[in-house]
Amino acid sequence: MSLQGSNNDRPEAPSPVTVANGAVAAGNKGNGTVLSSLSLRLNPNQEHKPDDYEDMQLEFSAVLLSSLEKYLPPTMLNDPRDQKAKFMQDILLKYLPPTERNRAIKHREYRQKIISNYQPRNRELYTLNPTAVFVPSFLKAIHDNSEQSFRNILSEPSPGIFVFEMLQKDFCESLLEEIENFENWVTEAKFRIMRPNTMNRYGAVLEDFGFETMLDMLMEGFIRPLSRVFFAEVGGSTLDSHHGFVVEYGQDRDVDLGFHVDDSEVTLNVCLGKQFSGGELFFRGTRCENHVNTDTQSEGQRLKQQESLLPSGFVKALTSVPFCIFHYTSYMSMYGAVLEDFGFETMLDMLMEGFIRPLSRVFFAEVGGSTLDSHHGFVVEYGQDRDVDLGFHVDDSEVTLNVCLGKQFSGGELFFRGTRCENHVNTDTQSEEIFDYSHAPGQAVLHRGRHRHGARATTSGHRVNLLLWCRSSVFREMKRYQKDFPSWCDECNREKKERQRSSLATRMSVVVVVVFVVVALME
């Protein structure tokens, strides 16, 4: 059950200049002079309230700059907003090669062309109204903002996988209408859109048609609070970007999705609905980069063989799938749309900041859950004329939110197989890491992006899912300088325990030999 690599799409960041206190040097301040006293702090000023950069024309996400502002030197915190924005963008541009900058400019022009020509059907979706979007129990937990309040609404059926009721039925139906309206416009205008990934052929990237702000709010206000608690070890408290999309599965869509990891620190996956059967998610443990392609256990191999036996016919199903680092979901799903591309960026900003980050701060602190600062939101579709399933993968995120939006379907279960770092992403699956999850409309699953998973075949119906990959630039930068093993990688932890057992056994053998020699000499 090998995972294909996708880290080669990431540019290698240059080594930062450091000063005596270990802070990262900021470079010049407009006049070409390098001032060593102007450097980012290693620890953020949590009491500082950053400026809002939403109304400025920027090279980078406004949410990213607001998050980075807390790391500015004390002497700059009260400077004019435009000066701080230039200072921070100058730092960030050092880490972005010219080819990446050109690609970013072209993508921005692509989004602007969509937003200038596409007429939304439900404009209220593009701003996040919490009472209209979320179920009351979820809102109360976020408002109380404590680990206990989060655990009151969450179930953790497998370590690191959190399931909870999230979206109201009316919101799911409205979002499905908007996605269908967008796809109809794409067909009529003969406009070629970017799909969420190469694994899903049906779906849309939410940021590409206006949902970026909405997804920002979702990540910052709702996902990051959860990730701070439950995914702290993978940057759950520092999520600062996202990739949101919807994907479709069904007879005329993709049927399933291969084994993969997401290109995210945390992934949210929500089923939006429609009628379907099948399509379960399967999880196979968390892996770091070193272990992402290690062998799976016999049970995992058996499950993979079963997944390849797809039914002869499928009814249309629409679902959202997480992203992967060694086989990007962006390259796995052929049907869907990127939400940021057609106007949802502000809404997603609000979702991440106000709802995801509070959760991630508690549950994913070890992977930057409290510093989530960017996102990638998208919807994916599964059905007979869409993608059917999704392969084994990891997401390109620190934290992933996956919500089923609905429609009638069967199948399409998610399967999880353990969390892994880059070195261990393909190591064997342990029995305790095996978990399958069945979608329900409006219900969300939140997990580390490095948690290996896939989506089983949607055997009938039509399923739609919303996904939001939340990322932490702070966590990703810190990983470059990490000397010891990542605590969140199950395989790294097993190797450490094995070394400890081996070392103890060696010491015990030495003690036995010494005792034997002493006894022999005494005789």
From TrEMBL:
Q: Which cofactor does it need?
A: L-ascorbate
Query: Entry's Pfam families?
Result: OGFOD2-like
Q: Which domain of life is it from?
A: Eukaryota
Where is the Fe2OG dioxygenase domain positioned along the sequence?
A: 373-472
Is Heme given among the entry's keywords?
Answer: no
Q: Which GO terms describe its molecular function?
A: dioxygenase activity; iron ion binding; L-ascorbic acid binding; oxidoreductase activity, acting on paired donors, with incorporation or reduction of molecular oxygen
Provide the transmembrane region boundaries: 504-522
Q: Is the keyword Iron in the record?
A: yes
Q: Which PROSITE patterns match?
A: FE2OG_OXY
What UniProt keywords apply to this chain's record, in alphabetical order?
Dioxygenase, Iron, Membrane, Metal-binding, Oxidoreductase, Transmembrane, Transmembrane helix, Vitamin C
- Its protein name is Fe2OG dioxygenase domain-containing protein
Protein species of origin: Lupinus angustifolius
